[in-house]
Amino acid sequence: xxxxxxxxxxxxxxxxxxxxxxxxxxxxxxxxxxxxxxxxxxxxxxxxxxxxxxxxxxxxxxxxxxxxxxxxxxxxxxxxxxxxxxxxxxxxxxxxxxxxxxxxxxxxxxxxxxxxxxxxxxxxxxxxxxxxxxxxxxxxxxxxxxxxxxxxxxxxxxxxxxxxxxxxxxxxxxxxxxxxxxxxxxxxxxxxxxxxxxxxxxxxxxxxxxxxxxxxxxxxxxxxxxxxxxxxxxxxxxxxxxxxxxxxxxxxxxxxxxxxxxxxxxxxxxxxxxxxxxxxxxxxxxxxxxxxxxxxxxxxxxxxxxxxxxxxxxxxxxxxxxxxxxxxxxxxxxxxxxxxxxxxxxxxxxxxxxxxxxxxxxxxxxxxxxxxxxxxx
Amino acid sequence: xxxxxxxxxxxxxxxxxxxxxxxxxxxxxxxxxxxxxxxxxxxxxxxxxxxxxxxxxxxxxxx
Lengths: 377, 63
Description:
The complex is a heterodimer.
Chain A: H1 3-35, H2 37-44, H3 62-72, E1 77-82, E2 90-96, E3 107-112, E4 118-120, H4 128-137, H5 142-171, H6 185-199, H7 201-215, H8 217-233, H9 251-258, E5 262-268, E6 279-286, E7 295-301, E8 307-310, H10 315-328, H11 333-376
Antiparallel strand pairs in A: 1-2, 1-5, 2-3, 3-4, 5-6, 6-7, 7-8
Chain B: H1 2-6, H2 8-33, H3 37-57
Helix pairs in contact in B: 2-3
């Protein structure tokens, strides 16, 4: 590689990294507890505890659960009901002042599906883990915050690519994984930066890119609303506002009949971001391992419970949904979470050592400059 | 393997990193497909970079 080429790539690597490093450090640090949020919730006693009851205890129907939720939070409406594989006897309820209100003002809790009893989930509404999540997702700055982080993620990807290019000249005379033990601190950290950087490459690349995709989720969902959903609800455009909403009781049966072989993931009540003013939307997930990450929304008329349509899932929505596990690291059991945590810490080390290497180089250059200046006088 | 002969310098530097990168990618994808053996594949794919990095960090300085 020509020295001119190396200098150019070095410039790209230095500046793409420097600009994103502080944000990436913040993301890596806040991401660490988020990987283990389930375990931390259990440890802090924030995980919802559903009471033990005989296995054959009958379940309440969905409309009864809606009533139970409304009784728990008077003056609010149900936005979503969601299911979690870890708690077959419970279900998450999301409520707010209005159906289409700001997601950050939504109150989340669990409902016992057999008794309708509300069990609070404090970490979903505030506290330490919520601070970590908000910092990680948008730095409390809404969509501009998300897009800024998406841009930082793209710079991170550029830093990885330029880092791989620079790996070649640095490693020309060295064997793979060499950490020279008898050189200066700077050389040791240079070797470690190269080694850890190159072996964690795929992971950092995948987590970085899927993070960028997730940061653009709002745009992806807006696009889906304007595109796939709008086409399906077009006939309702001039319909009068919904007054008598049909009970939610049979929503799951209807959705299961419409898309056999699927399981419920969540229900969006009329007027939310994931439904229309005139529809319930039941989001069904596939029953195989891979398709369990993908969703099929069934649009059900909220006045007569007739199925209006199965909204097709465009490729960009599937891409967003498949990118989520790849960003969260929650799809391969506890060993995967631990490895995710280790790789996250290793990324912090790569970022930190990169910053350190830039700093000592800069100081060395300044010293040389001073010396030259002194000699010149 | 003709490329191997054509660009020995390239593969000397990037041979092992390429294998590791492919293994990690396979691991990340494998766990999406199923549990059990698929999960184990992902642990191997991510375990190798983690182990190599920690081994590097353990190298003691000799003055």
